[in-house]
Amino acid sequence: MNAFLAEYMWLVICGVLLIVEMSTVSLTTIWFAGGAFIAFIVQKLGFGLTGQLLVFAVVSLVLLFFTRPLVKKHLNTKTTRTNVEAMNGMTGVVMEPISNLKDKGLVRVSGQIWTARSHDDGEEFEKGDQIQVLRVEGVKLIVKRVEDDNSTGYI
């Protein structure tokens, strides 16, 4: 049994690392599984334990540092903006006049009421004006006037 385990030690390590990767999907242990597989091949070619360990370490680190960033870049291409991030660019309507000098203003965007400020301190908005969200600062929307009535955001 020990001879069998010694002969297939790297495959067992590879299998365990693959199981860990499948259960965590962290893109970390997969590279070490690759290193273990290559170490298994090196063992079959007759290299000693020192050579196997060296190959395992080098292959694992090369895979980790050079291919992981590329794989992560291609896997995260379809991130969806959610919550506050999704507010940027949306349009809405002024519910209460906006005046930065008077520190007041309410807008409705996507069915929700928000406090709002103009991106330009001197610009004021009247009730019913169309606005576009530029960004969110804390719990306030920073808005600008919508120049085009054909906007595609949510009011």
Explain what this protein looks like in three dimensions:
- By secondary structure, this protein is of the alpha+beta class.
- The chain has 2 domains: 2-75, no CATH class; 83-145, Nucleic acid-binding proteins (OB fold (Dihydrolipoamide Acetyltransferase, E2P), Beta Barrel), CATH 2.40.50.140.
- 42% of the residues lie in helices and 23% in strands.
- It is built from 4 helices and 5 strands, in the order ααααβββββ.
- It has a 5-stranded mixed barrel with strand order 1-2-3-5-4.
- A hairpin with a 4-residue loop joins strand 1 and strand 2.
- Helix 2 packs antiparallel against helix 3 (29-44) and helix 3 runs antiparallel to helix 4 (49-75).
- The chain is rod-shaped and about 85 Å long.
- The model has no long low-confidence stretch (mean pLDDT 85).
Give structural attributes:
rod-shaped; 2 domains; alpha+beta; five-stranded mixed beta barrel; 42% helix; single chain; 23% strand; 5 strands; OB fold (Dihydrolipoamide Acetyltransferase, E2P); 155 residues
Gyration radius over CA? 29 Å
Percent range of helical residues: 40-55%
Low-confidence stretches: none
Count helical runs. 4
Sum up the overall morphology in one term.
rod-shaped
| First-to-last CA distance | 71 Å
Number of domains: 2
Q: What amount of the residues lies in strands?
A: 15-25%
Overall average residue pLDDT: 85
Structure, briefly:
With 155 residues, the protein is of the alpha+beta class.
Secondary-structure blueprint:
Blueprint: H1 2-7, H2 9-24, H3 29-44, H4 49-75, E1 91-99, E2 104-109, E3 112-118, E4 130-137, E5 140-145
Parallel strand pairs: 3-5
Antiparallel strand pairs: 1-2, 1-4, 2-3, 4-5
Helix pairs in contact: 2-3, 3-4
